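Thread: Newbie trying to understand structure tokens

Hi all, I'm a second-year student working on a class project, and my supervisor (Dr. K.) asked me to get a predicted structure for one chain before our next meeting. I've only ever worked with sequences, so writing a 3D structure as a token string is new to me. If someone could post the tokens and maybe explain what I'm looking at, I'd be very grateful. Here's the chain:
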Amino acid sequence: MPHNVKNEMKVQNNLTGTEQPEIKKTETRAIIDEEGIMPLLENYIEENPKIGYLIFQVYQDSPLEGVLPVPNAMITLCKDMGDGYHITKTIQTNEDGKTDPIAMRTVSADLSQNPENLQVYATYDAYIESPNFLPASVEDIPVFDGITTIQPVSLIPYYGFSIAPPNEGDIETI
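---
Reply by user tm_fold:
Sure, no problem. This is what the structure looks like when written as tokens:
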């Protein structure tokens, strides 16, 4: 009996690259639990019960015009869940080069009351790209319980030429 592609999906572990056999959507939770995604998510939520906020401010530093906002920049937020799994969220800047506040899970501020707790915030990574600019990445962005963090990101214009040195023989002598 042929499989109906609309009702099937493949689960892949990014770390091992192993692909699971096609399954019906009704069986998805069982396979996800088997693969370890649900325990990772449940652990993450348990360890990060609070919410902090993150705003990106993406700009270009122009020597002639000063600081210029970069509208419509695409920002991909990423959180490593372990075992080769990641959670990502993609957002876009507005005409002022800013994002709306993004609610992010983080640890409780109460952890800061104990000097033995060295990290009293959650961290996230971000990849930022926009047409006509070189992409940028920011690692370990801190998010604190109940606090709004503003993350500035300066993008460098891309003018379409390589900044790598030419290969030998690429330069013609006149």
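A couple of things are worth pointing out once you decode it. The first strand starts at residue 8 and ends at 9. Residues 1-31 have pLDDT under 50 and may be disordered. Feel free to ask follow-ups in this thread.
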